[in-house]
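Allow me, if you will, to draw on your knowledge of protein folds for a short while. Thank you for your consideration; the sequence and its tokens are set out here:
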Amino acid sequence: MKVQNNDFSQGSMPRNMLQLAIPMTLAQLINVLYNVVDRMYIGHIPETGMISLTGLGVTFPLIMIVSAFTNLFGQGGAPLCSIARGEGDIDRAERIMGNSFTLLLISGVVLSILGLLLKRPLLYMFGASDATFPYANDYITVYLIGSIFVMIGLGMNYYINSQGFARVGMSTVLLGAIANIILDPIFIFLFDMGVRGAALATILSQALSALWVLRFLCSSRAILRLRLKNMRLEAPIVKRITGLGLSGFTMSCTNSLVQIACNASLQQFGGDLYVGIMTVINSVREIISMPISGVTSGAQPVLGYNYGAGKGRRVKEGIRFMTIVCVGYSLFVWALVMLFPSLFIRIFNQDPQMLAIGQSSMRLYYMGFFLMSMQFIGQSTFVALGKSKQAVFFSLFRKVVLVVPLVLILPHLFGLGVNGVFLSEPISDLLGGGACFVTMMLTVWPRLHDTKPTAQS
């Protein structure tokens, strides 16, 4: 059998990036369907749709914590694999992947146990009310029991994509998404399981994806194979994985923190209706930001490989192409949301009150969306080149330094109330995204030359 080499140092950089980015974008869009399809069905449950959707919304911080550890050990190790493969060190690349798998297993078990023990106080802290808690509890209980499948399926899929098998990576999430779309209405409506049925459909679908990933990575088709001997944890490798993974981990944790702050403020100033509106806004954001995430994720293995191979000029070419595509797309989708907000809201719920109030809230929240791509571009470049400190700093800066204080302070100023919560996002897009991109251009760009990198920070 002929083994695919995937040498990213040859050929057109845009072509190499698009060959990964297009399938990865489709894969991430499909992956969003795991949760978004749940919300679409739940939001249209007769009589209880809006309150069920709001209950699901308060589980987001816990789900983001699971994603945080998936990013820490999955997304953190994949760029290191790309760099090691670019340097020709296949043995080290496989040890990185094996260590990542072990870390995902351990953290998945620990998170499930802790989440089930602490779910009640956590859900109330995250914005649940007595009316929404039963729905939130039903969903998160089932989800936490099967979270290990989520972590293995998503976390190890990064290693398929980092080897250049983007179509196989897309098949991973396509398999699960199709299963989820089929199982959701069966469990929610036919078996009358409501939100528990939605969670069960998601977990069973993720289990199928996890089996698919492991089957491929253990097969002869993979360039880097998952081997038992490489699963023994090595302190230097664990340190590098967690160091680089801190960027994605911090982004997910801070997203969780932001969601907690938003739900708490919205519950205080507006009640369950506004928590439900934020659930819809976040769901729309997941969908429309996926192409940006797909392009930047697809760029990372190519940028990392060329950086490891000492091809600085090609890295520059890749950054330039990534910037043009992401900024152009974000301007287009920003215009759609600002002009037709009701179309996006109706996907999840058609309650007249939610439609009337949600349109103005959505316009406030998305005012600076076209600037968000700057954060993705700068962040992905730092991660791809192994510069974990910079990536972590800008994750913290945008969410912890900017968004959370704004969410907590603005509602109390000038009578803004709930509008202050929604305004915090465009302000952080401008300040945080701009700072990340400009810093990357001033510090990384001038140092990219055709020579082997001497150090990675």
